[in-house]
Design a protein that fits this description.
The complex is a heterodimer. Chain A is mainly alpha-helical. Helices cover 77% and strands 0% of the residues of chain A. In chain A, helix 1 runs antiparallel to helix 13, helix 6 crosses helix 8 and helix 10 packs antiparallel against helix 13. The termini of chain A are close together. Chain B is an alpha+beta fold. Helix content of chain B is 28%, strand content 23%. Chain B contains 17 helices and 23 strands. In chain B, the strands form 5 sheets. In chain B, strands 1, 12, 13, 14, 15, 19, 20, 21, 22 and 23 form a 10-stranded mixed β-sheet that branches. In chain B, helix 10 packs antiparallel against helix 12, helix 11 runs antiparallel to helix 13 and helix 16 packs antiparallel against helix 17. The relative contact order of chain B is 0.18. The chains are: A mainly alpha, B alpha+beta. At the A-B interface, helix 2, helix 3, helix 5, helix 7 and helix 11 of A face helix 1, strand 11, helix 7 and helix 14 of B.
Chain lengths: 325, 546
């Protein structure tokens, strides 16, 4: 097992290099460049100042040299400095966005699992029932409604009309003057709407997945056997069927690892949340190459890591696979 | 999302202008307010909504509007534009221009101190100049300063610059924020200095904190050389979505923002809204145009361009795109400013006259489409994606031109591709774009025939010997009357030639919570006298401990 994990980990290195190379090339193929946002259609910017800026950011070098430099820095885990005017290290910019993105994603993912699994199981067990139909409509409504629109409606209701919740942002203006408890409450109030809405939009996938897994498992012979033995229905559903139906969820959990640090641009824009989605979007729009590469590399690494975790987790949970390897 | 192209468009055009410039400002009465003693008082905080985050505080190295606005609280330049968009002294008390127009002597204010208490002197100005021309400074604004032949600081309160030839826009370039030498000296690259994140200047507000992507906070500078600002704290909140920002405004989370025309016309007319907010309206500093690639075989003929100008229904454009909140553009200057010439040829909506001109130019109608030499009059109008106003403009023009037998196709392209693949390579028939209007009327870069190279701004390829000469004349004298004459004539020629069909100048539509008093709209907008805004003691909402 450990040799297997070690081999997989080693394999990620060439994979990461390959992914970064493709990303790097694609990024440079996109029209425009980092200096464009400040100099395009700017009468004050002359050809000379453009050349100076290019040289300043090392963009006057051939592509392979630029990539080589980036790779060399990455080897020492240095993400480089952002091309945005603040010139701050990319690692620092990403680091300050992680807590809020991670919090929202963990909470909404937790909410999704908490709601979707019981809904899925119950819908499967009572297939075709009133609950099954209602929950199907509900989760698909959540999936189909444009989040930004629903978010605005929720803001109008809870923020403007009722005044129960803050509309946007992640903390109140007097946040720094609050005590510890006050701070927690304040953060919580700001998180209610984003987390609920993100969760609502994600319910469909998980609950339908759980439902179909469960339906499949319930048809299996061992469930019939358990029932025939006279095992109580509750035990049949939770011990025999659900545990097996949950196995594929491990894969989903693994595949969700990169999502933990990925933010939704639209969502963060609507709620004015300074998260990873906005950071990446702004990076792309201003062609901030080091920032784009930094986020893409982290995303690629987390994806590979998530796959590995899913495989290992599956092996640990399912004896059939463990014996096979 | 459509924010970025719009922001790119904003930031791409000269941003030396910090205030929303405007003219003929009008305030709409707030109805009957409660009777409060309207006496200026110190205190309270104002929360501004901003769609973009700050990218840095040193304006030498930033180009976006949000950064320049934020930095304006902390830093000063030697000169600035006053409420009528005329240059006045800021850190410079006065200046003299030598008779030959080549030397400017600035007399600096005495007794000004940096926020850390260090005195401000001509050494700081000298240092700033040095950094502007230093290749290690990643600035897009170095060019104006490279025109300087010699700069010197003969006394702590005197700064002298000499130019090779008289250059009128040079004076405005000294509105560049002056940097503190004693704090920046040790950083060869100022963009990497801590001051770019935690600024320290001479301005009316002192920097408190910057939470990236969230907010920036400033506190009033009690020692400001023009007096302590009344409003004790300024908080700029980053809210990237206009609709969210408007909800924040209504629920009290934001005190000042800019409205969109639909918000102005349809969402702020309620009595409840008017009870708490004052809306303002004044001419914005920008215009939208339809520009032709003049080397295109269709557009070489002046009569064709004039015909399109007659065919374009500007009233319908203003009503449809801006919901009536704008005015017809007649040239590249802002109505109501000294350089604006109101008496130029105008093109009222007149399809019959358009048809007559086109037929004169050899275009004959066949099955509803104009044809010449077997070629139908069809072309593509290009504009950048994500700009709703421009897309609507294109759609209305499409209808207008169809009425006279011209078919246009509309194509929208993402900003960077639009600039790099189409504008810079001159691969377009016609474009819908906009320019910001700077207070200084020098537009050499946009109209001079030498500025048609790659990345240069005369992308339509306009060439007119008289305009070339007048542009040169206008920028090489400080004499306002002479300049005015040159720019008036330029506008006459442009109006006749129609290298662009000048379409409209929109209105700027700020809204401010009505507890803020002392706001006096002027051609320069409303924020030029921000330090004089106040909230009467009884109405103060936030209690700020100084």
């Amino acid at each position: 097992m450990f040799r297997y994990i070690a081999r997989r980990l080693l394999l990620t290195v060439p994979l990461l290099v390959g992914i970064s190379l493709v990303s790097f090339l694609m990024m440079h193929m996109a029209p425009g460049g980092p200096i464009g946002s400040g100099t395009d259609l700017n009468p004050k910017a002359t050809a000379e100042s453009r050349e100076r800026l290019k040289a300043y950011y090392g963009l006057d070098q051939p592509l392979h040299v630029q990539y080589g430099r980036w790779l060399g820095r990455m080897a020492t885990l240095d993400f480089g400095d952002s091309f945005s005017p603040d010139g701050r290290p990319v690692a620092e910019k990403i680091k300050e966005r992680i807590p809020i993105t991670l919090t929202i994603n963990l909470l909404s993912m937790g909410l999704i699992f908490l709601v979707a699994i019981p809904v899925g199981v119950y819908s499967a067990v009572r297939k075709g029932s009133f609950f099954d139909r209602i929950s199907t409509v509900a989760v698909f409504t959540g999936f189909a409604i444009p989040t930004f629109w629903l978010a605005l409606l929720a803001m109008i209701l809870f923020g403007v009309k009722l005044g129960w919740l803050p509309i946007s942002g992640i903390s109140s203006l007097d946040y720094d003057t609050l005590g510890t408890l006050g701070k927690i409450v304040d953060r919580g109030r700001h998180l209610v709407l984003p987390v609920l809405l993100a969760g609502f939009g994600g319910l469909a996938g998980m609950s339908r997945y759980m439902r179909s897994n469960m339906l499949e498992v319930i048809r299996q012979d061992y469930v019939a056997t358990a029932r025939a033995k006279g095992v109580p229905e509750r035990t049949v559903v939770f011990r025999h069927a659900m545990r097996n139906a949950l196995l594929p969820v491990i894969t989903i959990l693994g595949l969700s690892v990169p999502d933990l640090l990925g933010g939704s641009v639209i969502f963060e824009t609507i709620f004015a949340i300074p998260g990873m989605g906005q950071l990446f979007y702004q990076g792309v729009m201003s062609r901030d190459y080091p920032l784009i590469m930094g986020i893409l590399t982290i995303g690629a690494f987390l994806t590979l890591l998530g796959n590995l975790l899913a495989d290992v987790g599956y092996a640990l949970a399912d004896p059939r696979i463990r014996q096979g390897s | 999302m459509n924010l970025s192209p719009r922001r790119a468009a904003l930031s791409s055009i000269v941003l030396l202008l910090l205030l929303v410039a405007c003219s003929g400002g009008k305030k709409e009465s707030a109805g009957k307010g409660a009777v409060v003693s309207d006496v200026p008082a110190y205190g309270d905080a104002i929360v501004e909504g901003s769609i973009g985050d700050v990218s840095g505080f040193l304006t030498a190295v930033t180009t976006d509007a949000s950064s320049h606005e934020a930095a304006g609280y902390v830093f000063n330049g030697l000169v600035r534009y006053d409420k009528d968009l005329k240059l006045e002294g800021e850190l410079a008390e006065s200046w003299e221009i030598s008779p030959d127009g080549k030397r400017i002597t600035f007399h600096l204010r005495k007794g000004v101190r940096w926020h850390d208490g260090a005195p401000f002197t001509s050494d700081d100005v000298m240092f700033t100049y040095g950094r502007m021309i230093d290749p290690r400074t990643p600035t897009a604004y170095g060019e104006d300063f490279r025109q300087v032949k010699r700069a010197s600081a003969p006394a702590p309160d005197t700064f002298v610059v000499e130019y090779a030839r008289p250059f009128a826009p040079a004076l405005a370039s000294w509105g560049m924020h002056v940097l503190p030498k004693h704090l920046l000296e040790k950083y060869p690259d100022i963009s990497k200095s801590p001051l770019n994140k935690k600024p320290l200047g001479t301005g009316p507000y002192r920097f408190v904190e910057w939470k990236t992507g969230e907010k920036v906070v400033f506190d009033a500078n009690p020692d400001y050389f023009e007096g302590k600002p009344y409003v004790s704290r300024v908080i700029t909140r980053v809210i990237p979505d206009q609709a969210t920002m408007f909800l924040e405004l209504k629920s009290g989370g934001v005190d000042i923002m800019t409205l969109t025309p639909p918000q102005y016309v349809r969402q702020t007319e309620t009595a409840e809204f008017r009870k708490s907010f004052n809306r303002y309206k004044y001419t914005a500093s920008g215009y939208t145009y339809l520009g032709f690639r003049l080397s295109h075989p269709f557009f070489g003929d002046k009569r064709v361009r004039q015909a399109i100008a007659y065919a374009a229904d500007k009233k319908a454009l203003i009503d449809g795109v801006l919901l009536g909140l704008g005015q017809e553009a007649t040239g590249p200057y802002k109505p109501g400013t000294w350089a604006y010439n109101p008496n130029v040829r105008r093109y009222p909506h007149d399809p019959a006259r358009a048809k007559a001109l086109l037929s004169e130019a050899g275009w004959k109608e066949k099955d509803g489409v104009l044809v010449k030499d077997g070629q139908p009059f069809e072309f593509t109008v290009l504009t950048n994606a994500g700009n709703d106003a421009r897309a609507k403009t294109a759609a209305i023009l499409q209808q207008n031109l169809a009425d006279v037998g011209i078919r246009i196709k509309i194509r929208t392209v993402e900003w960077a591709a639009f600039i790099n693949e189409f504008i810079d390579k001159r691969k377009f028939d016609a474009v819908i774009l906009g320019w910001n209007i700077t207070p200084d009327p020098d537009q050499f870069d946009i109209w001079h025939s030498s500025k048609t190279g790659p990345k240069e701004l005369n992308h339509v390829g306009f060439a007119n010997a008289e305009v070339d000469r007048l542009l040169d004349e206008g920028r090489s004298t400080f004499d306002l009357e002479k300049r005015k004459k040159a720019y008036f004539r330029i506008q006459e020629i442009l109006a006749d030639e129609q290298p662009y069909v000048f379409l409209y100048v929109p209105e700027a539509l700020p809204v401010v919570h009505n507890r803020f008093r002392g706001i006096v709209p002027a051609p320069a907008g409303i924020t030029y006298n921000f330090i004089k805004w106040y909230v009467p003691a009884a109405l103060q909402k936030h209690h700020i401990q100084p």
